[in-house]
Amino acid sequence: MKSIIIGGGKIGSNLLKTLKDRGYDVTLIEKDENICRKIANDLDADIICGDGSDLAVLNDAGINNADIIAAVTGKDEENLVICQIAKMEFQINKSIARVNYPKNIAMFKALGVNETVCSTEVIANLIEYEFDSDICKIIQTFDRGAMILVEVIIKEDSRWLDCFIRDLELPGESVIAAVLRGEKVIYPRGDTQILLNDSVHLITNKITFLKIKDYMQAGGISHAKKKK
Amino acid sequence: MYIIIIGCGRLGSMLAEDLSDSGHNISIVDREAKNLATLGSGFNGLRIKGIEFDNDILIEAGIKNADYIISATPDDNINITVALIAKRIFQVPRIIARINDPKKKRVYDGLGIETINPTELSVYILKSRIEENPK
Question: Which residues contact B10 (CB under 8 A, 6 or more apart)?
């Protein structure tokens, strides 16, 4: 598979290395000559020094045969324009843009660039994850919190301990996707019983997550013996 | 008419002052305060400091009611981004963008953005003057 990376910063150069290690055919485009030299010294890779939003440079990089484009420069406007060019001029459907300012994600979407990665948001979410209580943790966020994957660890005092799935009072906008018991993945049905140390995975959204969190934390010992 | 000018460099600032003097409503956006300060005290339009393609900044500049938007920054990628937002998100009736690098003309054309190309215009004028007076 042929891929092109535009932008040779920390993200671009590491992506280049990773993709090369996995045996992909990959070309990097970077504006700054010094950065190009530095990467060329470290890696035996295809590097083009030039403006990634210039059609001629993209042609040199072999965009006509490319399957995927990753625009990961530090400038959002540049990443947007590159994805627009890839789509319009070269009919590349798979292009990924790095968004530096989370605020711009909506704008990228509105202009038809659906695949975006926002490192700022990813890091903020990771930190938020670490701050979350031990009972409920956000594992993965999709679409800026429109959908999230939550992990609930079942302790001795959990409201859900020994309950059957069918008896759980779950808010409307949530569903239990899987229960992890040790190494085993259980695909939950109504008659699945939740046991101690189970890790229950829920799909929900940010607002409902807060409700579930409050509900679980309000549980306490008094509910521990409530068995059905 | 209500006109938004993006970029307060030499082209943007002169255009803003001129249009304002002719009685148009102008708001001008630039991320550098010092660029906006080059506008004389006689300029009575709206000056907005901020990222040129930021949604909130564009709304503050009045993009929802604008008749015209002129994207005249020295960065083609910013001009294209602003023009696309104006066209596809806010449906501004008329949009003109400045081409800085003549090689980028094809990108503007492909995306259906009306342009002005100062470099090409200068070349054209210089060439015709030279050929009119061959001595």
Answer: none
Contact at CB, B77 and A106, closer than 8 angstroms: no
* Closest chain A residue by Cα to residue B89: A110
Under DSSP, the state recorded for A67 is S
Fold of A2-121: Rossmann fold (3.40.50)
- How far apart are the CA of A209 and the nearest CA of chain B, in angstroms? 29
Token duo for residue B118: 């100062």
Name the residue among A54, A77, A107 with its Cβ closest to that of B55: A107
What residues of A are in the B interface, CB distance below 8 Å? 53-56, 75-78, 80-81, 84-85, 88-89, 103-104, 106-107, 110-111
The domains of chain A are located at 2-121, 132-223
Question: By C-alpha distance, which of A63, A5, A64, A70 is closest to A39?
Answer: A5
Q: Which of B94, B97, B121, B92 is nearest to B108 (CA)?
A: B97
Using a CB-CB cut-off of 8 Å, the residues of chain B touching A88 are 110-111
Nearest-neighbour CA in chain A from B24: distance (Å): 29
- ipTM reported for the complex surpasses 0.90: no
Domains of chain B and CATH, by start: 2-132 (3.40.50.720)
Nearest chain A Cα distance for residue B81, angstroms: 6
The pTM of this model reads 0.76
Q: How does pLDDT run across A22-54, given as a tens digit for each residue?
A: 999 999 999 999 999 999 999 889 999 999 999
Cα gap B114→A217, rounded to integer Å: 58
The Cα B2–Cα B27 span in angstroms is 8
Across the interface, of B75, B77, B85, the residue whose CB is closest to A107 is: B85
Across the interface, which of B54, B55, B110 has its CB nearest the CB of A89? Answer: B110
Exposed, middle or buried, A221 (CB in 10 Å: 0-12/13-18/19+)?
exposed
Per-residue pLDDT tens for A97-149?
Answer: 999 999 999 999 999 887 898 888 888 877 777 776 667 888 888 876 788 89
Please state which architecture CATH assigns to domain A132-223: 2-Layer Sandwich (3.30)
